[in-house]
Design brief:
heterodimer, A: MetI-like fold, 14 helices, globular, B: D-Maltodextrin-Binding Protein, domain 2, D-Maltodextrin-Binding Protein, domain 2, six-stranded mixed beta sheet, three-stranded antiparallel beta sheet, 17 helices
């Protein structure tokens, strides 16, 4: 009896599934503690009138109904879309451009890649946001230069039309991770395609549009989705550089959620807003996936 | 040295089993007895032994404040053997950190709190029992300033004020001279202010002022408008201006016109400077004026003097020269004890030290505001190395404002809804007016008043 129990324990411990779960445990624990439970709580709080440190009072759909009437929230979705629609393509084009430059074989290739990746490493940090705030600020070199050209009273962060430009540029500047993925994608395109095209007399532009882009399209899809999601979640730069201003011009949804939840103490309302954003992001991603069939080219399909 | 201490501890441990209960009783008696004389300035004061204990402390402020506070912390560590773990932040990020810690029930034992204590009321331990037992010695603390941190509804003392200060203006006399504009006086009006701004901007090409705390100035204008008016009632329980949007519209129009003309730094500039007065244009000699809290004057003056600029302080402009000043001397910040702290008594002793110790305050030197402790203030004023020309100006302006009869009519209250109301006022209505979402100040004022009431109602139901 004892023997068999011992044996079954041993069998259980040596079972492939058990071993797998044990090795995956750190992730599973982290995922439950840091993602799953907070998400469930936020879903619950989104139906409550809840303030941090206070009691949650069930109010049903009231938060969601109020959100649909909230002009500030509507505005924050619009400016986020503006940011994503301008910022993400800009960043991808830039990343692809640098990646193509870097695939030309030179001895310094490794160093170049590392150097261009640095902005991404430090990109999301507060320090960089502060540097951009100084750079584009009213006393910064760029505004001073514009002033010296004779334009008076111009200030990026004081204008509702221009305030988002430095934020978009700051985002585009952190192209490193997309660039690396593009670079590895470019390397996988067989050289014979290019050679054949060259013999047939195709120019560089034609080769780029007829060979590089189609062969790279799965990678573009991946980068597009990743950047889209991170674009929707932009927070640090907006909070540090413009604090959402002026007049809500750069109050992106994540900042709206933060302000409502932490500054004003309407945590339930903020949770509801974050669920609406989740749905918007899911729908956007879904649409891109659906359309991807028409423009993404998989060699395996041929 | 260490070895000897260890040996003594061991010896103490051997006899302690029998002695401890008696000891503990004696010690308890001593604190209650000593309670009436917890006078840290007494040369024979027996410093409590807190070796092995740790206390957490968090505050906000400028670099100057961080250095001074850390110096005082080290002083207390040396005197009592305690280990104080501290954390600091600038004014705006402090509350983010604070709320995160509050949500996790991990607030420090002692923290700096502002006039917005109503918002965080649940986290604050009332100090009444510590004052009654004498652990916190309030014998030389100004009664009126002690009352500023009291919850009028139930008499709870929410903290001990770190100092008195008032919102005022600082100006650069050199620029005023250069532009031929008369200096601000005690009775200058908003019209004088506007005229000065226009004259200066016209001649220097720069905004005359780049930091103006919009909401608090607007609230001051409401107080100045008519005797008995205040934006919030004295006890913060309601609005107190009969829904009269005229003063709000008046200020909105004035401010908006000046900003449109380039006399006031635009919203971008103001956001860049934020609460960091050292970065204000006045410190570089570009702007002529700044609105600030009197306790920020030291830091600003230090920054300005590096560029060879000397600044003066003056009172807020008024609606009419013989009308209400709308000014008030208030407690800018206080030290409070966390309601869930396990070391409340140690925390209270630390606060006592912070508020009463002359040696400590010689280091702090009223950077948080003019000390509310008469003995401390006297000692500081007597020391000419501490009371330089800059600090003297701060003392003078506080004396001047404190002597005004009508400051008693100005409400310093910041109710829970204030944070959102002030924010919405600036982001939605002031900036909306600037960007043309509203025809004029009257329209923006009406819309703002409607929303302010809505926000107020939201917080009423939440309570």
């Amino acid at each position: 009896m004892k023997e068999s129990r011992k044996a079954s324990l041993k069998a259980f411990l040596n079972n492939d599934n058990t071993v797998g779960y044990i090795f995956a445990a750190p992730f599973i624990i982290g995922f439950c503690g840091l993602t799953l439970i907070p998400m469930a709580l936020s879903l619950y709080y989104s139906f409550c009138d809840y303030k941090i440190g206070g009691n949650a009072l069930w109010i049903g759909l009231q938060n969601y109904l109020n959100l649909f009437k909230d002009a500030t929230f509507g505005n924050s979705i619009m400016v986020t879309l503006q940011y994503v629609l301008i910022g993400v393509p800009l960043k991808l084009v830039f990343a692809l451009f640098i990646a193509m430059l870097l695939t030309r074989p030179t001895r310094l290739q490794g160093i170049y890649r590392a150097v261009y990746y640095i902005p991404s490493l430090i990109g999301g940090s507060v320090a960089v946001a502060l540097v951009w705030k100084q750079l584009f600020g009213s006393r910064g070199p760029i505004v001073s230069f514009i002033k010296s050209m004779g334009v008076t009273g111009f200030n990026f962060f004081g204008s509702t039309t221009w305030a988002f430009i430095p934020l978009v540029l700051c985002n585009a500047w952190q192209f490193g991770s997309s660039m690396l993925i593009f670079a590895s994608g470019l390397k996988q395109i067989p050289m014979d395609y290019y050679e054949a095209a060259e013999i047939d007399g195709a120019g560089a532009v034609k080769r780029f549009f007829k060979i590089t882009l189609p062969c790279l399209s799965p990678i573009i899809l991946f980068n597009l989705l990743m950047q889209l999601i991170s674009g929707f979640m932009t927070f640090t730069q907006a909070q540090i550089i413009t604090n959402g201003g002026p007049n809500h011009a750069t109050e992106y949804v994540s900042l709206f959620i933060f302000t409502e939840g932490f500054s004003y103490g309407h945590m339930g309302y903020a949770c509801a807003a974050s669920w609406i954003i989740l749905i918007i992001m899911a729908v956007t991603t879904g649409i891109i996936f659906k359309t991807s069939k028409t423009w993404v080219f998989y060699e395996a399909d041929e | 040295m260490k070895k000897r201490v260890f040996a003594m501890l061991m010896a103490a441990a051997m006899v302690s089993t029998a002695v401890v209960p008696v000891f503990a009783e004696e010690a308890a008696e001593e604190t209650t007895e000593a309670g009436t004389v917890n006078d840290v300035n007494d040369p024979n004061y027996q410093w409590p032994d807190y070796s092995g204990e740790t206390l957490n402390f968090m505050w906000w402020g400028s670099d100057t404040r961080h250095q001074k506070t850390i110096e005082v912390i080290e002083m207390y560590e040396e005197l009592t053997g305690i280990d104080i773990e501290y954390e600091y932040a600038d004014g705006s990020s402090y509350w983010t950190v604070f709320q995160a810690k509050m949500a996790g029930n991990e607030l420090p034992d002692v923290f700096q709190m502002g006039n917005n204590w109503a918002t965080y009321y649940d986290t604050i331990e009332p100090l009444n029992s510590y004052i009654d037992s004498g652990i916190i010695d309030t014998s030389s603390i100004n009664e009126a300033m002690l009352a500023t941190t009291v919850n009028n509804a139930n008499g709870d003392v929410t903290g001990i004020s770190n100092g008195a200060n008032a919102r005022c203006f600082a100006y650069n006399p050199a620029i005023f001279d250069e532009c031929g504009v008369p200096y601000p006086t005690e009775n200058w009006t908003w019209d004088d202010f506007a005229a000065a701004c226009r004259a200066i901007t016209e001649q220097t090409g720069n905004p005359a002022i780049t930091t103006v705390e919009y909401n608090s100035l607007l609230f001051s204008v409401v107080t100045q408008w008519k005797e008995g008016y205040n934006f919030y009632a004295m006890d913060g329980s309601d609005f107190a201006f009969e829904g009269d949007t005229e003063p709000i519209a008046y200020f909105m129009n004035l401010y908006n016109d000046l900003m449109k003309e380039g006399c006031i730094g635009d919203w971008g500039i103001q956001n860049e400077i934020g609460q960091n007065v050292e970065a204000d244009w006045i410190a570089y000699g570009d702007a002529a004026m700044i609105m600030l809290s009197s306790n920020q004057f030291q830091a600003l003056s230090n920054a300005a003097s590096e560029n060879g600029i000397e600044l003066e302080l003056c009172t807020l402009p008024k609606v009419s020269a013989d009308g209400q000043s709308g000014m008030v001397v208030r407690s800018s910040q206080q030290l409070s004890i966390y309601s869930k702290s396990e070391k409340k008594e140690i925390a209270a002793n630390f606060i006592n030290f912070f508020a009463n110790s002359i040696e400590a305050n010689k280091i702090l030197n009223c950077e948080r505001g003019v000390s509310i402790n008469s003995a401390v203030l006297e000692a500081l004023k007597a020391d000419s190395t501490l009371t330089d020309a800059t600090t003297a100006k701060v003392y003078d302006i506080i004396d001047l404002i404190g002597s005004m009869e009508d400051t008693k009519n100005s409400s310093p209250a910041e109710p829970t809804a204030n944070e959102e109301i002030s924010d919405v006022l600036k982001k939605e209505y002031a900036q909306g007016l600037y960007n043309g979402s509203y025809e004029n100040g009257e329209e923006a004022a009406e819309a703002f008043w409607a929303e302010a009431q809505e926000i107020w109602a939201k917080f009423e139901t939440q309570e």
